Amino acid sequence: MRLTLRVWRQKNAGAPGAMSTYEVDGISSDMSFLEMLDILNEDLILRGEDPVAFDHDCREGICGACSLVINGDAHGPERTTTCQLHMRSFRDGDTIDIEPWRAAAFPVVKDLVVDRSAFDRVIQSGGYITAPTGAAPEAHATPVPKADADLAFEHAECIGCGACVAACPNGSAMLFTSAKVNHLNVLPQGSPERETRVLDMVAQMDAEGFGGCTLTGECATACPKGIPLLSITAMNKEWLRARRKVRG
Description:
This protein has 248 residues and is an alpha+beta fold. It is built from eight helices and seven strands, in the order ββαβββββααααααα. The termini are far apart.
């Protein structure tokens, strides 16, 4: 396959950025999208040019580091992570636009790499439990209804990639935050911090500069792990209940 790539190049957060055009040839349809970028970077290095900076780690669809907007879609045309997107999703001769996540709370570090530490601070504000755990307890010591266990597992699948923020017209982090809140709030271990968790995490999310949620649903559509839009509704109910309880 021969492809034309229009890639966002930006030296740092304070420098202006622009799209640069590159041609790549000999791309196999069996390559992953990141392998295709590796080929591009090998060509750039051989020409004495600066390679394109992009995030990646496991390349197995687990960590979510490989965050790119491809032809306007977070992670590309398939509902998966960028590292698991293969070039068979494109056609010979295609022009592909490759950009970083676009959100005020995710400043560009370089080229396609953004700083997602805002997510870390949201987690630090409430994504933990204070109950002592010690050694692994006996499996049936704390019964958890299956519906609650299933809900917790569903939300625990969130990998914090930020696709929800990149896809949202407002740059909202409500889907990410709701996944983390709901994951812990439905389990007995998370019960002691149930109210403070949702209040603190939502407050930190707002402080980071993420936009407001208008429930357009783009976040859930882009999520590679299928976190449902109803997660936001559940968190909103948790937040209202917690605020009434805290205020007395």
